[in-house]
Structure formats: structure tokens, C-alpha cells
Write a structure and sequence with these properties.
By secondary structure, the protein is mostly helical. Helix content is 88%, strand content 0%. The chain is built from 2 helices and no strands. The radius of gyration is 32 Å and the shape is rod-shaped.
């Protein structure tokens, strides 16, 4: 079996390199998140569309409730 042996200097350099790579990856992830939020505002667009449909649905529910009340009122009058 071949074993990989590192002296203290090489081991320290390897750890520093890994830490730099991790720090760079975190930095890139933050930049990507910032660009996605500013250039592609998916959350704001989704909230706008959801609010638009929610208002439309509320209006439709109110109209259906009013129609149901009228139908039940007419049914009550006819059944008397």
C-alpha cells in the first residue's frame, strides 16, 4: 500500500489552501444570491402575482357568496 505522508509545512499549506477555497466558495455563493435577488427578482414577482390572484379570488368568492345568498332567498320565497 502506498501511503500519503505530508510533513508539517505541506500539511499547513494544504489546510490554508482548503480554507481559501471554502472562503472563495462562500463569497461566490453570496454574490450569486445577491445577483439573483437584484437582477432576477423572482420573490417580488411571485408576491405580486400571488397578490393579484388573491384579490381576484377574494372578489370571486364574494360574488359567489352573494349569488348563493340570492339563490337561497329565492328558494325560500318559492317554497312558501
Amino acid at each position: 500500500m502506498n501511503e500519503l505522508s505530508l510533513d508539517n509545512k505541506e500539511y499547513f499549506q494544504l489546510n490554508c489552501c482548503l480554507l481559501k477555497n471554502i472562503a472563495e466558495a462562500v463569497h461566490l455563493a453570496r454574490d450569486f444570491g445577491y445577483v439573483c435577488e437584484t437582477e432576477f427578482p423572482a420573490r417580488a414577482l411571485a408576491e405580486y402575482l400571488a397578490r393579484q390572484y388573491a384579490e381576484h379570488d377574494a372578489r370571486r368568492r364574494r360574488d359567489l357568496l352573494q349569488a348563493t345568498k340570492q339563490v337561497s332567498y329565492y328558494h325560500l320565497i318559492i317554497s312558501q
